[in-house]
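User: Predict the complex.
Assistant: Input components as received:
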Amino acid sequence: MRAQSGIIQPPSLISVKNLRLTGRRGRGPETPIVENVSFDVAEKEMLALIGESGSGKTSIALALTGYARRGCRIAGGHIHVAGYDVTAMPPAELRAFRGKTIAYIAQNAGAAFNPALPLMDQVIEPALLHHTMPRRMAIERAISLFELMALPSPGTIGSRYPHELSGGQIQRLMAATALITGPEVVIFDEPTTALDVTTQIEVLEAFRTVRREEGFTGVYVTHDLAVVAQMADRAVVLKNGVVQEEGTTEQILSAPRHSYTQALLAANTPRIRNNVTETKDTGKDVPALDVRDLVVGYGGTGRDGRPRHTILSDVSLPVLPGETMGIIGESGCGKSTLIRAIAGIQPWTNGGITFEGEPLAPRIEARSAAQRRHLQLVAQNADLVLNPAMSVGDTLRRVLTFNGDAATDVEIGHLLDMVRLPVALADRFPPELSGGQKQRVNLARALAARPRLVLCDEITAALDTVVAAAILDLMMELKRELGIAWLFVTHDLHALRSVCDRVAVLYAGHRVEFTPVAALETPPHHPYTRRLENSVPEMRADWLSDVIGQRDQACDMAPAMPSSRGNGCCYVSRCPVREAVCEISVPPVRRSPDGALISCHLTIQDLSRSTAPGDQS
Amino acid sequence: MTVASLTRRWAAIPRIPGALILFWLLLAVIGPLLAPFAPGEVVSRTVFAPISAHHILGTDYLGRDVLTRLLCGTSSTVLLCAAATLLACTGGVFLGMIAALKQGVTDTLLSRFMDGVISIPSLLSALVAVAAFGSSVPVLVLAMSLIYMPGSYRTSRMLALSVARRDFVLAARMRGEKAGYIVLREILPNMTGPVMADVGLRFIYSVRLLSNLSFLGVGLQPPMTDLGSLTRENLLGLVYGAPAVIAPALTIAVLTVGLNLALDSNRREPG
């Protein structure tokens, strides 16, 4: 222990006693954010702080570093970290303490790096700032950390700039920055929340490896229980700044005592919400929306009449009336572009879209009033979709009057009721609403137009699990009540399974698989679909080790192929079952017995076999 | 508009700068009425008299009451500049929003025109306007508003661009709303804060420009008077340390610096 005046050696490395944090908005009264929170973390232990947004988990994590966000303050209680009394330290000591004894890894690593400096300078900065080691040694240590975290070309990656790396790589570099001084405590604040499931695996594995080697004590802030299962030894469940339950990860996940923890678990567990599974897969129905061989790109058109760089390549997607069509793929696969093209805000170059038998104009301005009305878009970011200067009631009223419907208070009340919001909310303004409430109002605005098809662009991505689950439930209720067809874009396979009738899998702008949702459960599948499935975190603790064991490292390292590469399969560079033919010719579309359309050179038999258990190892 | 949104609008007006602007406007309107003497009247035989009970701010180079002249001068400076600012910002904000919404050719034409205007030093273009059309209140107001419109245009265009990129404007466009509705109801209410700060800045700029012009003798012509011409005509009093020259100069400083500080403090306050 360090020679700190007047400090008794605490029983554990981190000890928080009766912590109270308060905050105020503007000149308003102080309101408690965190109340009477106590927990201990033993040396080399990883503690998870679990909770929804607003539960105070990040505030607590920041308080461990002696920091309170603007307008907030540590109002009471004691925090001891590695022998320091954090609440009693003067600013100069706190500065020395941060970065050297305790390090913080933030959610959005991209924003934490200066885009104008090479990465190595930024990674070793804490070491130089705290004079823990000379520059040369710091660089050596950084490179060994890069190696440990399986970053590509660890020796030279430091000379690159932040924008040259992917989100998952940047997140690992951020971890290296935090670990460069060899801190005793590391705080992880939702480090993988913004990442795709496929990338998340690599980052989680990197964190685990580095923890095994470095042996630091950790605090892991997250709302994802499956991630907790992989990373933490013990967990504290928080709600509204109050501890609900504390215990070992195993106990919390398998036998939760508190009702809130049980609700959290229920929301994390996948379940089928879509009860009406009378998918009329006869092929006779007239699709409500028919996307045919759609090509979207940029950079001018080449000699073959196609754009030089394509975002979407010949994507077809028939959506039947009243069905839920899911689109899944990792970020950059073109799923949002597809939605934007259908919505009329992203022009396309080849192919076409028809809506209820009528062709849709590429530009929204050229579409008829009925088309605009019956095809509604619900956008992803709940903070941007509502006009902050317009009350909820006025927002809904405008849609009704615009479409020539009666805009009475009764009608607005009815709309709010439809999305399960209290009528009193009509007088409120969007900044006063929670994320889930905003997304419901967003839905209500789309429903106010009485649509036939609603396009949902990752509407649950920014929401907590519990809130997201409620939104999905709501979607399905509305589907039953109003017979609306949904086009649901997501990168969350759980959500997709639970609400969709059919699913299109996009990879690098190609539709690699198109399948009824029931067929998702059983092989055969496209290799990419399988990879997606395997990447969804599960709540058993050994899941991560299993997945990593199964993975073909060479394939993971390969960059995603640009889709404009002409001939060959778009997935060839990452495919574990690729053959010579995949490099040179476009794969045929094969139909599996359970109705899935798979674009692959392998036969249905081969695809079924390569999915069989045991084959991977 | 509902009651809720009205009270909200009211609450959104920043306290300190709002009160300060109100104070100066009030002073501009009722100030001349409070003046103890007529502005042109020679009331004392002593020129550049010091502060006394009879003449609170002494007398000027002709023996006129400085307080009276100061009240009148403040009135014309504030009102002229307020009018010019109002014109400049109304034009700038609306053109800026239209450019942001329409983009393309409209945006390019407007922006290049504004760039052209902004590239000429403000004092120079004001002098040219006065030389061409003579110095009168309408010419001064119009010249000042034209000079400061591009600045307001650029600020509003950038603000409107960031608002127009948000999804609720997209939702309105997808609904088929007309440009007028989008500009007035969706974009404008979401940029009032920064626009108000910008209006304050333009006002300060125009006070400076008008004072400069008057100091050079090409601004307001006698018998009308403003803070710049007051400073100029009593310049000789500097040798005697007369309040006649210090008072108007100080008033310009208090008016501009005070407003600037108030607006700055407002910007730092969250919410």
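The radius of gyration of chain B is 22 Å.
Let me know if you want any component modeled separately.
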